[in-house]
Design goal:
The complex is a heterodimer of chains A (about 200) and B (about 290). With about 200 residues, chain A is an alpha/beta fold. Chain A contains six helices and seven strands; from the N terminus they run βαββαβαβββααα. The mean pLDDT of chain A is about 90. Chain B has 16 helices and no strands. In chain B, about 35% of the residues are buried. The model of chain B has no long low-confidence stretch (mean pLDDT about 95). The chains are: A alpha/beta (about 200), B mainly alpha (about 290).
């Protein structure tokens, strides 16, 4: 199986989420275009992401609510919940823990080709971010890291790096809203349209 | 952004962060570099608090040069201060020189055996080294002497959660609720843990505590959602007969209404149209009635 392609928007938003809460674990949902019934040989492409939590990742009720809402939103948009990302609290910890594994499996039950992304904290620096996450897929005997065959061209990578750097420089991570922010105040929009626009302008 | 800020503005922001214990280390460092560093002689006695604050922020951002500068200045002003030595310990920690850090804290504890900061830092080291079960053990010991340290109970709860030990995590919250029966957040978190554990008995407990959280703070959306989820669950799977199911159905309809009102009154229409929250809740409610 080839590794999934990740658009600039999904890439930047998930790293902005980690940058907004550097002292906490964060997680979120990756969205892909719904290709059901359509021929698609291009492989999986993550077009967007929804940042979920930074307070407590291991409790289920708010996660259920978040997934219900995101699912309802996706159906209207021709998108589908297709993956999960997590950045752990401990700087040196880039392993899959129980929470990631459980949520990842649940997503895979509903979307067969789902992947799990774990942010490699050590590779996220303000001036150079390359291959900042590990990509895992579920095999019979557990989660296995996917070999990167360079599905993304180096030009893509460069664009992502430049875009993220510009976003971080302007402090755009402060504008990113996750589902925890949404639950604090429903006006906080987890779709992050403003950040999306900013990313569009930069690319 | 930070360049145009005046000294007094920067000062106010830092003071606000100190009072509210906001952790925005990156901004603190930016303010320090762009405004405060060159004007520190104008800060008066506030300077020492600012040094302490900037030092902690610098450690967060791995800016060791700035941290060293702050510690040096504080050390000159307050030689032998335990508070300054704590910062030194934290500098070791940030560099991952844990043995040196531990020595620093141990020597603080030799002088002042009830120093809670040094004790907590030592537990933080265990956590940083991913020795979670040892950290849990030490934190339990610590809480025997500092029973009213709410943050510590909360931390212990999260450590237990990371180990999937829900019963002990719930116990920490029970302690917190006992000391602060009017804090809705503790009720809410307790309920979230019980809900996560699952099973009719736990979900009934969850419903009760979510309800109490809503009563204490009707604006707590997490608690409303939790109340909605747990009563919806019981409306389908309660083993206490038809009457109990109907009662729970009523509860969930009430919660749904509260949640929908919140969205309708607060979220802009364009957002509602795309996120479809109202319809989503409506659908869940309908599925209960069909049961």
């Amino acid at each position: 199986m080839a590794d999934p392609t990740i658009t600039v928007q999904a890439h930047c938003k998930l790293l902005l989420h980690a940058a907004k809460y550097p002292h906490a674990a964060v997680n979120g949902i990756l969205l892909a275009e719904d290709c059901k019934g359509k021929e698609s040989s291009k492989g999986l492409k993550y077009v967007d992401c929804v940042p979920l939590f930074h307070v407590s990742l291991g409790l289920s009720p708010m996660l259920e609510i978040a997934l219900l809402q995101i699912d309802a939103y996706c159906k209207g948009k021709g998108l589908v919940i297709a993956g999960y990302y997590q950045a752990n609290e401990n700087y040196n910890d880039n392993e899959i823990n129980h929470v990631a594994s459980t949520i990842g499996k649940k997503i895979k039950e509903n979307f067969h080709d789902g992947y799990l992304l774990v942010v490699d904290n050590r590779k996220v620096k303000s001036n150079c971010v390359s291959q900042p996450y590990k990509v895992f897929t579920l095999k019979e005997n557990g989660w296995k890291e996917v070999d990167k065959k360079g599905g993304n061209s180096s030009e893509d990578e460069l664009q992502k790096e430049e875009c993220l750097e510009a976003l971080l420089m302007s402090g755009e991570q402060r504008k990113l809203r996750d589902f925890d922010n949404h639950l604090d105040d429903v006006r906080n929009d987890w779709r992050n349209l403003e950040v999306n626009d900013m990313i569009k302008q930069l690319t | 952004m930070a360049q145009q800020m005046s000294l007094s503005e920067a000062r106010t922001i830092l003071k606000k962060f100190r009072d509210e214990q906001t952790r925005d280390s990156h901004l603190i460092i930016n303010l320090w570099n762009s405004v405060l560093m060159d004007n520190c002689h104008k800060l008066g006695d506030e300077l020492w608090l600012v040094y302490e604050q900037v030092c902690a922020a610098a450690l967060d951002c791995q800016r060791f040069d700035t941290a060293e500068l702050c510690i040096q200045a504080l050390d000159n002003k307050f030689p032998k201060s335990i508070r300054v030595r704590r910062l030194k310990g934290m500098l070791y920690e940030a560099r991952e020189e844990y043995t040196d850090a531990e020595e620093e804290y141990n020597s603080i504890l030799e002088k002042d055996e009830t120093n809670m900061y040094a004790k907590k830092r030592k537990i933080a080291i265990l956590k940083a080294r991913q020795k979670i079960s040892e950290a849990i053990h030490s934190l339990n010991d610590y809480l025997k002497s500092f029973m009213t340290d709410y943050e510590a109970w909360n931390e212990l709860c999260d450590l237990y959660l990371s180990q999937l030990d829900y019963n002990n995590a719930a116990f920490c919250l029970e302690e917190l609720i006992m000391y602060n029966p009017h804090n809705h957040l503790y009720h809410q978190k307790y309920a979230e843990i019980r809900y996560t554990q699952g099973g009719n008995e736990n979900i009934e407990l969850a419903r009760t505590y979510f309800a109490q959280a809503v009563k204490l703070n009707p604006n707590n959306l997490r608690a409303l959602y939790g109340f909605f989820l747990s009563s919806s669950y019981l409306a389908v799977s309660s083993n206490k007969g038809v009457k109990d199911k109907q009662l729970n159905q009523k509860y969930s309809a009430w919660a749904a209404e509260q949640i929908q009102n919140k969205y309708e009154s607060q979220q802009p229409e364009s957002q509602l149209k795309e996120t479809k929250v109202i319809e989503c809740i409506e659908k869940l409610l309908d599925s209960l009635q069909a049961n």
